[in-house]
Write a structure and sequence with these properties.
Blueprint lengths: L15 H55 L1 H6 L6 E4 L32 E8 L7 E12 L2 E12 L3
Length: about 160
């Protein structure tokens, strides 16, 4: 047995240092990919919310066009020199009129009917004179919160009496 030679085997593989470096690099890449994906999802959600807010602004604008055309006297009587604020956090129906709106600001209770119910919809009506106005100024605002940040879509329109 003394004549037996030691048999050396050479195995090739990765050392522990190489494995640690590889897993560290892979972790950095995966963390960056997850961060990018989270930001992408937030941007897509924000854009969807902005699109809905724009829809709500346009809905009130078209409804106001009908109100102005149906009864100018009532339309201009619902506005004041300093501006009257109306909360429109409900679905506008065909029978909804300016007379059915209650003056006053509203909180973030959500527009009824369409999830997510995160929007606040306000209308501010002001006029150019205390008597019978020839112009009524409307500011339509739809606000919502995303990740604690307040966003607002707004449109300003001037309505005038038909000659």
């Amino acid at each position: 047995m003394e004549n037996m030679k030691k048999i050396q085997t050479h195995t090739k593989g990765f050392s522990i240092i190489e494995v640690i470096v590889f897993t560290s690099m892979l972790s950095v890449v995966l963390v960056a990919a997850v961060g990018y994906t989270v930001r992408l999802v937030f941007t897509m959600t924000h854009n969807r919310h902005k699109l809905m807010a724009t829809h709500y602004v346009e809905e009130v604008k078209e409804w106001l066009n009908g109100e102005r055309e149906s009864d100018w006297e009532q339309f201009q009587n619902r506005s004041t020199l300093g501006g009257t604020t109306y909360c429109i956090n409900n679905v506008l129906q065909l029978n909804t009129t300016l007379a059915s709106l209650i003056p006053g600001p509203c909180g973030f209770t959500g527009v009824v009917g369409t999830p997510p119910q995160i929007y606040q919809r306000q209308l501010i009506l002001s006029k150019d004179s205390n008597e019978t106005a020839t112009r009524v100024f409307a500011v339509i605002q739809v606000s919502w919160r995303d990740e604690g940040v307040l966003y607002t879509e707004e449109i300003e329109t001037v309505y005038s009496v038909w000659e």
